[in-house]
Design goal:
CATH architecture: 3-Layer(aba) Sandwich
Strand order of the largest sheet: 1-2-4-3-5-6-7-8
Number of strands: 8
Shape: globular
Helix content: 25-40%
Structural class: alpha/beta
Number of domains: 1
Number of helices: 9
Strand content: 15-25%
Largest sheet: 8 strands, mixed
CATH superfamily: Alpha/Beta hydrolase fold, catalytic domain
Distance between the termini: 23 Å
Order of helices and strands: EEEHEHEHEHHHEHEHH
CATH class: Alpha Beta
Amino acid sequence: MELRRQHQHGFDYVDEGQGPVLLLLHGLFGALSNWEEVVAEFSTDHRVIIPVLPVYDMPLLQATVPGLVEYVASFVEKLRLPPVFTVLGNSLGGHVALVYTLRNPGRVGRLVLTGSSGLFEDGMGGSFPKRGNYDFVRERVGYTFYDPAVATKELVDEVFAVTNSNAKCLRMISIARSAQHHNLAGDLDRIAVPVLLVWGLNDTITPPPVAHDFERLLPQVELGFLDHCGHAPMMERPHGFNRYLRRFLHRTAAAQPSLVIATHSAR
């Protein structure tokens, strides 16, 4: 499905469907399109919201994980989201989701992480993209997936454009370094809500042992793996990802009495 972007209160975002809110957070090189299959599946009975995280144009001093968490908190407030909702995060978006949950324990009813940073991440295969080298960028973007063909020319072109902008590169490096230094191992036991981990068995950026570490450190957690899948399961194995997510939402629904249904007419 084609995602329709909206602009309000200074935020760009997607807002589809009606029902309990699913707030989706993309990664450092992510885009709204990363979540297309999730939106298509769940907007039939949920309100699915995806803010565009300002990873390439936020003030440089704020280009950190805490800075992105503040951005999400402001987005939630300005859009007047219901008191409790579910947050999903991929890669850096998972890291932001974790810190947001720690800072706002009463707002997050459930948490879904896929290829999340926060414990360990081998970003871009251990190196940042070389400026002006298209082949290198194509190889590094392909490194994200089990099947490099998933790294379409459009996606590679987007990343290549970023690497050729000094301003964007500075912000990307600042955020990546912040994520590496912002280890959450000592904090995860404070997350009391149900958590679903969906991981690619072939993830080379946050490898499967990272998922097991999250499983060990989080109090209420379930872990599912998808084979022949890299760092972005919702893109590379969307049907499998959606099955895990649907089962998790159904199983934990009874424990979410305060989830408020927010419709478009109520905004």
